[in-house]
Amino acid sequence: MTATPLGRDYWLLWCAAVSSRFGDALRTPALALLAATLTRDPRAVALVTVAAQLPPLLFGLLGGVYADRWDRRRTMALVDTLRAVVVAALAVLVATDRAGVPALVVTAFLLAALGTLFDAASFAVLPALVAPAALPAANGRLQAGTAVAGGFLGAPLAGVLFAVSAALPFTVDTLTFAVAALLVLALPPTRRSCACGRDSAHEEERGEKHQCEITASGWRAGVWREAWAGVRWVRGDRVLWGVTLATAGSNLAIGGVLAVLVLYALEVLRVPATAYGVFAAGVMVGGLVGALAAGRLAARVGTLPALRGVLLAQTVALTGLALARNPVPGGLALACFAAGTTVWNSLWSSYGQRHVPAHLLGRVGAAQRVVGQVSAPVGAAVAGFAGQAYGVGPIGWAAAGIFALVTAGAWRTLRGAGSVAERRTDPVPRP
Which residues contact 42 (CB under 8 A, 6 or more apart)? Predict the structure, then answer.
């Protein structure tokens, strides 16, 4: 099968995403290091992390609304410009020794809040840049590029730059946001996803069957009603709802494993502390392989059969992790699990981008992310308390059990829908 070319516009978006992710990978550990130099109070240090985790849950649906209301290219460029300004202000505070924990909390919160709008817009803009058949490969390469920029380049470099100057990682992050904004502006202009409410220039595009949700009165309506349209769409489509629930269940287990991963590696798998970096890098390699393989897997077996197979493979991988008692088999199991995670993320994104109408993409994608991610902090909290009470060893078995239940439910939900969904050429009917 001949691969569908991705094209210049896609690679501009890819470069923007990779640039932004590289800056994120510099800033995130630098924020933690800076917080630790300002205070040894665990509550204050944790508050910086919590400030970055709350906005996607609080504002995720609103980000989807405005990604559908506004020109997505300009929205992405504006958001990256604003993020550059926020990080630049922090860099100045750090360089002048005026940064405190409140400044770190505010910075983390603002960047994450702006990120919800950027994520919704970028999810919705991708289908306009590549052919539908190329979406699995396009999403996979995006994940691969951001994984390399973040895990293999940015994260290791963050500590080095921080050691040179505490302000340096934030200065570089400012530049990466600026570069990303310029790259996005180089994309071809895009109009609003549904412009016929106020834009008579597209009057000729209205046909008898045209459905325009955002009418002149709709623009004045409450944003929450528009946000709920995305939730209703996800809830009304059997496949999207099944995939979203599977993502939420998966993230419950993933959040728990990630919360205690370093302790699990050191205490259960007996990874030497000096080799933990190598162990973590091996896991990231698995994720990279999965991201690169997502497009071929979807082309060979179909998107929904691939999603079912990925859940089954991840259940087996977590079972292997629970059984492992030394670094090699444990590392291989985690690498396979990470590969499945990137394949899953690439393929569920591609399915939604192919089967949801363009004017709803921002809101539907945001609804899926909010519902899918809300379980991750719950899993992390439960794993923390359970690890304290019973040790971290049983957490591997608990994660494998959760994935087995998710796999059984998703297998039944997606099996009958696969053939219909894969043949679908028109948008999913409006629920």
Answer: none
